């Protein structure tokens, strides 16, 4: 064999080794995050149960149902519509792992954009995982992409035409779940997921639906509740109620002509009061420094300190950063406030949750205090709280 | 001290007392019916509607109120603060909103309808985009009701002092209920 | 949900991969061979539907 042929064979072996290592990394992102259902969970299913086209696919995300002993309305909470917005997923996971429903029903989809957790956004240098400390041990979760995995939906068009409105957006938005509602049963991968979620809201008779998000600290719509017009009174009540807990939220109305977003389409296409909440995430900011798991969890970044000093940051920001426990706490307290407003509006279909952590409890105890430990977790068969 | 100097000082002191009392403007009294509108289309107008309900004051809420809506109205409440999402929700441009607000305020002035301007959104409804609307609404007001966080740089207090407008600054949004009850009996 | 367009793309990638592999074996300069080899990595991952 000539020397350059031998070299070529060696290069191919190198290629194979690199491909194996890279494959291992990419496929590791398909390993599902561990969610340990708490005593409140009475039933677990997947999104495939609401739309057959998703059965056996990479979009089959878990759906948790927590049914109370007393009759009442139904609340649906979504996290992970954007997998790079960690506090929404973590708040939803706390609901699954910690709380109990006294009256009514709670449906939680912690990772709505299941496919988005299997990839990352190019050029963002996001870490693949982050860790939340527990009282005993720690839990590790994936940090995904804003959109669905292009492996599952390819190619992106130049211009994305929203169904059914025909609204035009940049082609990449075709894989953004929060631009694809209400979806369609035979549409793109993302549209099918959106359709399945609409089916959850319709078939389960959801009365109030909340979508949990994060955004860059310089984004003007942040630390906010966005409300469909059906629910603006509830949201206004919630903002006032949150103010008494020293939590500043702004109130935004869902733009009527901006189609595809959860708060718009859920409110228009179902009976549910539809809300979306945003907290501030340094990881999504354009001014951030090194993008590390520690940055995601602590929210401390010296460039944002400088930005805050010149008024470029839309949330309160100081040297203590915006740690994940404050962001998750805001979401959980926000859910409580919206429920309070909803219960005032619809007392005949009240929803009562027990063990819902407050902002103060999250801030002092950390998110890990309300997550189950894999080493000590035993699935509850009696519904008793361990 | 001569008699002249004594009387001069006495008159100067009396004039100063009047000046001090004039700068602490007395809050006017507003009459119902009330028209509630927005300047900038932030959802704070919904917050104001909720506050008015808590204060048991009936108000006709029209975020996109036009001069014709002033017919039969005795008080115009304007909630200042810009929101791009709000403009989107209302389906109008920023320029159209500014035109609407200025036209409405001129019509209210012409019809001698007093304006009560509220700013509830705190720091989030301040800044270059909001302050145009904040300024227009504040300068036309007979009374300003402001949440403290939106006046940390004395934006509204300065306007109040310059234009001699009574101003009430409250710590929290919910704190606006009592002043509303007091000025709109 | 793999479309015909997907398989056409995989076919093109496979042909490109084959062409590059042939060039890899005929090229004598080691640094050019390295460049050809490294190009193959993302093509392989794409064909295997991993990335």
Overall description:
The complex is a heterotrimer of chains A (386), B (185) and C (51). Chain A is 31% helix and 19% strand. Chain A is built from 9 helices and 13 strands. Chain A has helices at residues 3-28, 86-98, 189-203, 232-244, 262-269, 293-298, 302-309, 324-345, 359-365, and strands spanning 43-46, 62-67, 70-78, 100-109, 129-133, 138-142, 159-161, 168-170, 208-215, 224-227, 250-253, 273-280, 352-354. In chain A, strands 1, 2, 3, 4, 9, 10, 11, 12 and 13 form a 9-stranded mixed sheet that branches. In chain A, strands 5-6 form a two-stranded antiparallel sheet. Chain A has a two-stranded antiparallel ribbon with strand order 7-8. Chain A is globular, with a radius of gyration of 21 Å. Chain B has a single domain (28-183), classed as Rossmann fold (3-Layer(aba) Sandwich). Chain B has a 6-stranded parallel sheet with strand order 2-1-3-4-5-6, sandwiched between helices. In chain B, α4 (94-110) packs parallel to α5 (128-139) and α5 (128-139) runs parallel beside α6. The model of chain B is unreliable at 15-23 (pLDDT under 50). Chain C is mainly α and 51 residues long. Chain C has one domain (4-47). Chain C contains 2 helices and no strands. In chain C, α1 (4-26) packs antiparallel against α2 (30-47). Chain C is elongated. The mean pLDDT of chain C is 91. The A-C interface holds A 4-5, 7-8, 11-12, 14-15, 18-19, 22-23, 26-27, 57, 151-155, 189 and C 1, 5-6, 9, 21, 24-25, 27-28, 30, 33-34, 36-38, 40-41, 44-45, 48-51.
Q: How would you briefly describe this protein structure?
A:
With 386 residues, chain A is α/β, with parallel strands linked by helices. In chain A, 31% of the residues lie in helices and 19% in strands. Chain C is mainly α and 51 residues long.
CATH class of chain B: Alpha Beta
User: Helicity range of the residues of chain C?
Assistant: over 70%
The gross shape of chain B turns out to be: globular
Q: What's the number of domains of chain C?
A: 1
In helices, the fraction of residues of chain B equals 40-55%
Beta fraction of chain B: 15-25%
The biggest beta sheet of chain C reads: none
The H/E string of chain B reads HEHEEHHEHEHEH
Low-confidence stretches of chain B: 15-23
Instruction: From the alpha carbons, calculate the radius of gyration of chain C and give it in angstroms.
Output: 13 Å
How would a textbook summarize the main sheet of chain B? 6 strands, parallel
Number of helices of chain B: 7
The termini of chain C sit apart by 16 Å
Regions of chain C with pLDDT < 50 over 5+ consecutive residues?
A: none
Distance between the termini of chain B: 51 Å
């Amino acid at each position: 064999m000539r020397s350059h042929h031998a070299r070529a064979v060696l290069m191919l072996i190198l290629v194979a080794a690199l491909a194996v290592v890279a494959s291992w990394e990419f496929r590791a992102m398909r390993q599902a995050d561990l969610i340990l259902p708490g005593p409140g969970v009475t039933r677990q299913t997947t999104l495939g149960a609401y739309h057959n086209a998703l059965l056996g696919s990479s979009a089959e995300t878990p759906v948790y149902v927590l049914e109370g002993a007393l009759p009442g309305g139904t609340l649906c909470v979504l996290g992970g519509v954007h997998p790079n917005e960690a506090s929404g997923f973590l708040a939803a996971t706390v609901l699954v792992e910690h709380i109990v429903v006294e009256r009514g029903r709670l449906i939680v989809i912690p990772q709505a954009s299941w496919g988005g957790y299997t990839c990352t956004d190019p050029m963002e240098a996001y870490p693949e995982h982050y860790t939340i400390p527990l009282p005993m041990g720690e839990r590790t979760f994936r940090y995904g992409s804003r959109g669905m995995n292009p492996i599952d939906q390819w190619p992106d068009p130049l211009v994305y035409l929203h169904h059914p409105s025909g609204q035009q957006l940049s082609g990449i938005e075709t894989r953004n779940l929060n631009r694809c509602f209400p979806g369609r049963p035979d549409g793109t991968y993302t549209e099918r997921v959106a359709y399945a979620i609409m089916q959850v809201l319709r078939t389960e008779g959801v009365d109030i639906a909340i979508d949990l998000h994060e955004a860059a600290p310089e984004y003007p719509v942040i630390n906010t509740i966005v409300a469909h017009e059906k629910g603006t009174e509830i949201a206004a009540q919630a903002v006032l109620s949150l103010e008494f807990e020293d939590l500043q939220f702004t109130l935004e109305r869902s733009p009527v002509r901006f189609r595809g977003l959860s708060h718009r389409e859920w409110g228009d296409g179902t009976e549910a009061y539809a809300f979306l909440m945003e907290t501030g995430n340094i990881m999504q900011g354009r001014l951030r420094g090194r993008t590390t798991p520690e940055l995601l969890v602590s929210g401390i970044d010296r460039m944002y300190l400088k930005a805050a000093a010149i008024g470029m940051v839309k949330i309160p920001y100081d040297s203590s950063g915006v740690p994940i426990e404050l962001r998750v706490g805001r979401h959980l307290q926000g859910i409580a406030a919206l429920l309070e407003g909803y219960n005032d509006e619809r007392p005949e279909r009240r929803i009562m949750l027990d063990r819902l952590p407050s902002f103060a409890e999250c801030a002092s105890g950390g998110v890990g205090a309300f997550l189950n430990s894999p080493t000590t977790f035993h699935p509850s068969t009696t519904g008793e709280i361990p | 001290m001569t008699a002249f100097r004594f009387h001069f000082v006495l008159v100067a002191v009396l004039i100063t007392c009047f000046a001090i009392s004039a700068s602490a403007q007395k809050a006017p009294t507003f009459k119902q019916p009330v028209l509630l509108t927005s300047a900038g289309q932030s959802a704070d107008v919904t917050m104001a509607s909720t506050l008015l309900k808590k204060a048991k004051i009936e108000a006709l809420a029209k975020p996109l109120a036009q001069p014709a809506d002033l017919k039969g109205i005795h008080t115009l409440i304007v909630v200042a603060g810009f929101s791009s999402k709000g403009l989107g929700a209302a389906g109008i441009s920023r320029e159209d909103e500014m035109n609407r607000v200025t036209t409405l305020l001129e019509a209210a002035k012409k019809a001698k309808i007093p304006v009560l301007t509220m700013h509830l959104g705190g720091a989030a409804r301040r800044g270059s985009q909001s302050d145009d609307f904040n300024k227009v609404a504040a300068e036309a007001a007979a009374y300003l009701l402001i949440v403290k966080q939106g006046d940390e740089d004395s934006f509204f207090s300065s306007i109040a002092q310059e234009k001699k407008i009574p101003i009430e600054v409250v710590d929290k949004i919910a704190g606006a209920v009592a002043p509303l009850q007091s000025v709109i009996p | 949900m793999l479309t015909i367009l997907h398989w056409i793309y995989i076919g093109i990638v496979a042909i490109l991969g084959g062409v590059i592999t042939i060039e890899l074996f005929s090229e004598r300069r080691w640094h050019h061979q390295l460049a050809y080899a490294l190009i193959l990595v993302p093509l392989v991952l794409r064909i295997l539907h991993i990335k």
